[in-house]
Each structure stands twice: as C-alpha cells, then as structure tokens.
C-alpha cells in the first residue's frame, strides 16, 4: 500500500496474529488463479512487437549496479524470464505471451507454488468438507429446512485425497497451459549471476545460463516458525503439513489467530477436534476490522469447541515423544514471565510466512533484502543497496512483502508485463480484496474503520459508516443463513469508498463489487444505481451502497461558506 497508514493486509509490518517474532510477515495466503488453471485456454500469441518502456515522469534514478559482475548481454535468449512458477509467476507468464514476449519460467520445486500445492487450493478442499460436515451436524439448521439426516461421518483418507487430487489437477493444468502457449519451463533453482543473466539447474548437475531483456523474481514464501518451536512435521506442524491431514487430533493448539489459524480451526472443529488458540496480542483476529472481529468471534469461536489464551507467547513447543504429549510453554507478552504450560495432542504453527529469497544471487547485483524481502518501488522495480533501481529487474508477490496474497502476486506480475511492453501501470493495492474461508466467510477490501479514521484526521476530511445485515436479505433467509454483516466506510463529501468488510454467507464472492468499484474509482452516488438480481446475496451490497448518505453539492457549498 502506498500510504503512510499502517495497512495490515498490504504492508511488510509484523503479523498481528502472533507477535513473538517482531519481524514476522503478515499471515495471508489466498488464490488468484486464472481460468487457464482449470484447463481453459483463451490466449493466443500476439503478433505485436515489444515497445521500450518510457521512463518519463519517474523520479527514481536508475543505476546498473553491475560492479564487477559483468555487463548486460547485447542479445538475449528470452524477452522475459520469471523465477518461480507459482500463481504470480504463472499470471505474469500468460500475460507476457499474450503481449508477444518470448517467455521462460524457472521452477525448482513444482509448478503452482504455495497456493496450488500447499496453500489456497488444498485448504479450500478441506474447508469444503468442513462446511458440509458443519451443516449436516447442525440439527437446528437441518430441522429449520425440514430435513432429517442420520449422523454425519467422514473418511480421513478420503478427505485428504480430495485435497491432494484437486492440487494435482490444477498443477497439471497450470503446466499444460503454459506449455500450450509456448512458455518454456526450465527446471531447477534460479540464481541471478549478473545483469539480465540467470543460471538454473538441479543439485548434482551442470548449471545452465540464460539471458533475458527483463527478469521477474516470483519466488514466494515459506511458513514462518519462531525460535523455540521445534517442528517435527507430525505433532508440531505448519500449514504445509496440516494440509496433508495425516491425522485428526483430539486436541490441537493453534499458534496465531489470523487467517490461517481461523481456517484450520474451522476444519479441525468440524472434524471433531478441540482447539486452543494462542495469540500474542490482547484480542483474537487482530488483523480484521474490530467490529467484524467481534461478530466473527461470537459466531466462529464462542459456540464451538474452542478456547484461547491471549496476550501470551508460545516461547517453547516440544513435539510429542516417548509417550509424552506436545508441551507448550506460555510466556506473558508484556511481563515476559512464565504464565502457563499446556499439554496437547498436536500444535499447528500459524504465525505467518517468510519470504523465500535466499540463494537468489541478489548480492551479484548489489541488492540487500530487508528482513528477507526484496525492496521494490511502486512499480515492482527492484531497488539496490544504494537506493537506485536495478535495470530490467522486478520482484512480485510474497518475496517483496507488499501484499502477501496469491492474487496480488498475479496482479503485480501482470502490471510488470504491462510496463515492459510499453504501458506504464501502477497497481492500486487498496483495491485488492482478501478473504477468510471460514463458515461463514469473512472478506474485506480497503481500510478498516480505525485506519480510515486515522487517515481522515491526518488529511482533514470526515468519514461515515453504513451497515446492512444479512437478516434483511431474502436469499440468506431462504438458506437459513441470516447471520452476517456488511460494512461500508466512505467519505460523505465525495462518495469515495475507503473500505468494505463483509461477514456472512459467500462473503468471499460478494466483496468483488466493492473491490472493482475502488479499482475503477467508482463513487457511491454512481454505484447505488446499479441493478442487482432478486433474490440474490448481491443485494446485501446493493442495500449497503443505497444506505450510504453522500452530501449533495448544495449542502457542501453551505458547509464551506
């Protein structure tokens, strides 16, 4: 986010769901796959040539930063090389082909990155199961619909197989879509060896060196594990391990109550586990809008088999061994004194993610990471140790830390491709939505109410808040899912949308009307005339925008006079 405000979903500030490590990155992992991921290819290779990017109007000084690392080659193997074939790299590659660029993508692990293999995709498969289990287990919900069902059960291996199968399918489709469009997939770990030059290869084999006019770093992130926590992959696990669902513990502690922790609490409690949250801050779900957090806790935490400890660090976690359970030592976050010891069957470390940037060879181009993140400007151009731009080098996604969301990485990659093909483009991160796929879901875009009020005070304007309930929505009531709230934060003087937050049925799908409105600069006084089908959940947003009170010009003139 390009603002002096602290924006919890778009900055490299410490994660708010667990503060043991003061520089741990934000806990966000969501999906932004294009339709090609599902085997639908609509792109064709463009016949247009490349256009050199104009730098008119940009104040940042560009420095080659070559030092003793050689000079850029005069001819290139590729127009564009992307290091990392996750969602961000995939989105950039497809857009590059569409723009007529000869493109290669380097991947040392498996195509799809975290999102497809260890994140968004398999986690949504598990959450699909938990949602159905939760519905079938609710006698009150079934009775209200006039349904009778026998006791619901599940097959753990079948559930795990569902998550693995969908990940494999989408990984295969991603690979095939790039190959079909002419993207060269180069296997091996990529390292920058000099300006516009990358080597790649597998361990034990000779490295290959390739050159490109432009290079994009898209290496993503890995689970962050604070010091003092011993991960054995069996009883003390990260989200990578949890997605395999190798067993369902009777009692599991989840360290961190952000997006990852909340989603897994939804899965585990639906499958019969008891959950204990361990949160460093004084309240659960600190990264959400406070009003949404309060409602979500009432619905997602309090009625379920979940208890919690807030204001504490898990300073030491020892895996189960020799017949002993997992042992967790809790320390008071303020006094740093020992507070309690927990004994549980398993512990999930959901403390955020750390950038995967080691071994990239950034020292060869005089780039120094900041807490592991590659420094970039608003156009994703890499900045060297002297504060100068490194020519033809970009970094997108989790590796730059601007907004650790898979779809944000893809959007950044597309933005970069626009730039290298001659069209200046800056992504507005305030328009990028985020979602937590609990039951019900949580979604948001833009600023929280406290952030908006801080901005208003600093810049000298007023804000207003409008709200609407799912209880007033026909479709939600028909589904017997009236628990929910939509909240709009806006400027009454000009109708600018500052933030929208939704908690309720299909909130993750509903948020995009607000997201697109922010991206396009649409004002409330215009969007309130949009027509929504009836009866649909989209009318929640329709009522929300219609309830906002924007001052007319006559009233504004009176106020100013």
Automatic annotation (TrEMBL):
It is an enzyme of class 1 (oxidoreductase). PROSITE patterns: PYRIDINE_REDOX_1 (PS00076). Residues 78-413 form the FAD/NAD(P)-binding domain. The active site is at residue 534. Its cofactor is FAD. InterPro entries: Class-I_Pyr_Nuc-Dis_Oxidored, FAD/NAD-bd_sf, FAD/NAD-binding_dom, FAD/NAD-linked_Rdtase_dimer_sf, Pyr_nuc-diS_OxRdtase, Pyr_nucl-diS_OxRdtase_dimer, Pyr_OxRdtase_I_AS. Its EC number is 1.8.1.4. GO terms for cellular component: chloroplast stroma; mitochondrion; oxoglutarate dehydrogenase complex. It comes from the Eukaryota. Residues 432-543 form the Pyridine nucleotide-disulphide oxidoreductase dimerisation domain. GO terms for molecular function: dihydrolipoyl dehydrogenase (NADH) activity; flavin adenine dinucleotide binding. Homodimer. Part of the plastidial pyruvate dehydrogenase complex (PDC) containing multiple copies of three enzymatic components: pyruvate dehydrogenase (E1), dihydrolipoamide acetyltransferase (E2) and lipoamide dehydrogenase (E3). PANTHER family: DIHYDROLIPOYL DEHYDROGENASE 2, CHLOROPLASTIC-LIKE ISOFORM X1, DISULFIDE OXIDOREDUCTASE. This is dihydrolipoyl dehydrogenase. It comes from Gossypium mustelinum.
């Amino acid at each position: 986010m390009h603002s002096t405000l602290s924006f919890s979903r778009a900055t490299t500030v410490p994660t708010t769901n667990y503060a043991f490590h003061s520089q741990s990155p934000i806990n966000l992992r969501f999906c932004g796959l294009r339709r090609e991921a599902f085997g639908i290819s609509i792109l064709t290779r463009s016949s247009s040539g490349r256009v050199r990017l104009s730098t008119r109007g940009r104040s940042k000084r560009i420095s080659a930063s070559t030092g003793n690392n050689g000079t850029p080659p005069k001819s290139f193997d590729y127009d564009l090389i992307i290091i990392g074939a996750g969602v961000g790299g995939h989105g950039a590659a497809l857009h590059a082909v569409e723009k007529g660029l000869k493109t290669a993508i380097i991947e040392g692990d498996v195509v799809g990155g975290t999102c497809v293999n260890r994140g968004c995709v398999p986690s949504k498969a598990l959450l699909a199961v938990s949602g159905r289990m939760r519905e079938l287990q609710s006698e009150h919900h079934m009775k209200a619909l006039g349904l009778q069902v026998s006791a619901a059960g599940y097959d753990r291996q079948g559930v795990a197989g569902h998550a693995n199968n969908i990940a494999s399918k989408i990984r295969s489709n991603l690979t095939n879509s790039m190959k079909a469009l002419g993207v060269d997939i180069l296997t091996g770990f990529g390292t920058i060896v000099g300006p516009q030059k990358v080597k790649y290869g597998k361990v034990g084999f000779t490295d290959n060196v390739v050159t490109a006019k432009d290079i994009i770093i898209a290496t993503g992130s890995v689970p962050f594990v604070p010091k003092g926590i011993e991960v054995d992959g069996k009883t003390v696990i990260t989200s990578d391990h949890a997605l395999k669902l190798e067993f369902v513990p009777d009692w599991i502690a989840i360290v961190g109550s952000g997006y990852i922790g909340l989603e897994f609490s939804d899965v585990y409690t639906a499958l019969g586990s008891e959950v204990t949250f361990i949160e460093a801050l004084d309240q659960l779900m600190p990264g959400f809008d406070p009003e949404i957090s309060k409602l979500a806790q009432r619905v997602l935490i309090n009625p379920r088999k979940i208890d919690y400890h807030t204001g504490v660090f898990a300073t030491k976690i020892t895996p189960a061994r020799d017949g002993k359970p997992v042992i967790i030592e809790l320390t008071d976050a303020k006094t740093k004194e020992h507070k309690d010891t927990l004994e549980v069957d398993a512990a999930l470390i959901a403390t955020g993610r750390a950038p995967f940037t080691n071994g990239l060879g950034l020292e060869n181009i005089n780039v120094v990471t900041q807490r592991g993140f590659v420094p970039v400007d608003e156009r994703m151009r890499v900045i060297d140790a002297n504060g100068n731009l490194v020519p033809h080098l970009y970094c997108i996604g989790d590796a730059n830390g601007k907004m650790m969301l898979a779809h944000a990485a893809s959007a950044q990659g597309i933005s970069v491709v626009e730039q290298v093909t001659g069209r200046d483009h800056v992504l507005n991160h305030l328009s990028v939505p985020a979602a937590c796929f609990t039951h019900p879901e949580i979604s948001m875009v833009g600023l929280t109410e406290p952030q908006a009020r801080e901005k208003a005070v600093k810049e000298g304007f007023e804000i207003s808040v409008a709200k609407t309930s799912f209880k007033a929505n026909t479709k939600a009531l028909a589904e017997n899912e009236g628990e929910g709230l939509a909240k709009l934060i806006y400027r009454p003087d000009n109708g600018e949308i500052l933030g929208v937050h939704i908690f309720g049925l299909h909130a993750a799908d509903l948020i995009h009307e607000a997201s697109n409105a922010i991206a396009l600069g649409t004002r409330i006084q215009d969007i309130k005339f949009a027509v929504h089908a009836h009866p649909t959940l989209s009318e929640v947003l329709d009522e929300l925008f219609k309830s906002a009170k924007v001052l007319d010009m006559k009233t504004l003139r009176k106020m100013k006079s």
